[in-house]
Amino acid sequence: MKVKKTLLLLSIPLLLAFAIIAFIALPWLLIFIGNQLEPNPSHPEITYGKFSFRLEYEINGQRKVTQDTLICEYDGIGSNEARGKYRK
Question: Who contacts 62 (Cβ-Cβ below 8 Å, separation ≥6)?
Fold first, then answer.
């Protein structure tokens, strides 16, 4: 009889702790599983590009010019909770 009582006293807090963890973790786990099951976006035809730009602006009466080249590169597929799967 004592063994059953101590087993019951030990199992109740463990069950309660498991229920709390499951209540907190379950929504995030379901979102993660949903994102993994979603189909991947298509691979882009163009995976690399260079774009030259010139920026002219004025601060406190001084005119400033910035010239540079912006390089864009396809980096694979990413995944997050807000957008699902997306192209990087």
Answer: none
Paired with 45 in beta bridges are none
How far is CA 85 from each of CA 22, 48, 69, 78, rounded to the nearest angstrom? 25, 20, 28, 6
Q: How far is CA 67 from CA 9, 50, 54, 63, in A?
A: 72, 13, 4, 14
- pTM (global) more than 0.90: no
Spell out the per-residue pLDDT of the chain, length 88, in tens: 677 777 778 888 889 999 999 999 999 899 889 988 999 999 899 999 999 999 999 999 999 999 999 999 999 999 888 888 888 8
Residue from 88, 9, 35, 45 nearest 1 by CA: 9
